[in-house]
Amino acid sequence: MKLTIGYVGLSHLGINYAIASAIKGFNVVCYDDDKNIISSLKKKKIPFYEKDTEKNLKKKFKQFKFTNKINDLKNCDLVFISRDVPTDSNGKSNLLEIKKLIKKIVKIIKTECNLIILCQVPPGFTRSIKWPSNRLFYQVETLIFSNALERALFPERIIIGKSLNKMNKKYNFFLKKFKCPILEMNYESAELAKISINIFLISSVTSTNILSEISENIGANWLDISNALKLDKRIGKYAYLKPGLGISGGNLERDLETFRNFLKFNKIYENYSKNIKKISNYRKDWIYIQFKKIIKDFKSIKKIGILGLAYKENTNSIKNSPSISFIKKISFNNKFKVNAFDPKIKKLLKHKNINICKNSYDLMNNCDILIIATPWKIFKKINLNKFTNIKAVVDPYNLINFSINRKKKLQYISMGN
């Protein structure tokens, strides 16, 4: 069966799923009303960093049509609404643009076309769309920044929200190319399934952060404890047991906000989501809390070096990044000079007072305190013994092997120890 797949909205979500569709053998029409994004993609460039995404775009380039002409979607068999839903600083979704986009699309595509909502929306959203129910679906996306294309290509399962009708043949043919279980349920169940996945993830992250802080306070070692937990079948080796700097990136915050609204509306356990958010914000300040302790011990500290600006490794996204949060807290103090380096971020438009170094070596040669805010693998190779100027190291993720890097008069702080 020859199918043409359309993707409407070419943010991180749409681009990765479009490339996955091309790898599975389909011709793909990619539409966005942003001419700069279309121009970039036509030059085989993607507007963000994501492992293997640009490489596979180049490999499958002949299967794509990139366009800002909405009529180019007319002959598509499946059309995915794939623009990321924007959120504010509190994680609240703005659905206005997505609603406008869908209204434009349903006027253009042919009546036998399958319309699939891929972007994340609250329960009840899909059912409200005016399109024949036997050709209207919600598909749960489970991408992860830094590993998005692999997740799009090899999902553990695909969750589909639909009406009571049988699965459409063309859509079913497309889904079977991904060779994984397909779970069918009603629209609201699928929409809530996405939120449920993230709430369980958030709960795991939050519990880990609380327990790792207790470890710090009582002299325990969280790394030893987490190794024990991974051998428990009820928790498992894939559990999120590494301490972190709160919930970041935007997607988890969005689901936490939606979840909070459900609890508030139903007047049940309202403090649950509030406390999770409070704990997350506290953990995001972990670097700043340690920094305040250090500058009490070392009055002469003036130069701060920050390794890592992205909210996690293998991405260039700084949304809700702990390092950016830290920079904002100290930016008012002219006493400190701040240097930063991240492998994928070359400039900070909103923080011009921060000097971006060309490499980690230049940064470490020019700082009194070193903060490793993002666990990029290349930072594991750091040899602190070469830099006698560094008085203190804040290494939240235990990235550096301190037994090898032990040097005199160096204060070393990490999470969980």
Characterization of the model:
By secondary structure, the chain is of the alpha/beta class. It folds into 3 domains: 4-184, NAD(P)-binding Rossmann-like Domain (Rossmann fold), CATH 3.40.50.720; 195-283, N-(1-d-carboxylethyl)-l-norvaline Dehydrogenase, domain 2; 285-413, Rossmann fold. 36% of the residues lie in helices and 14% in strands. The protein has 13 helices and 14 strands. It has helices spanning 12-23, 35-42, 53-59, 96-106, 148-153, 169-176, 187-218, 222-230, 251-266, 270-284, 286-297, 322-330, 360-364; strands at 4-8, 27-31, 64-67, 78-81, 114-117, 136-139, 158-162, 182-186, 303-307, 337-341, 355-356, 369-372, 392-394, 411-413. The strands form 2 sheets. Strands 3-2-1-4-5-6-7-8 form an 8-stranded mixed beta sheet, sandwiched between helices. Helix 7 packs across helix 9 (251-266). The longest helix has 32 residues, at 187-218. It is globular, with a radius of gyration of 23 Å. The relative contact order is 0.09. The model has no long low-confidence stretch (mean pLDDT 90).
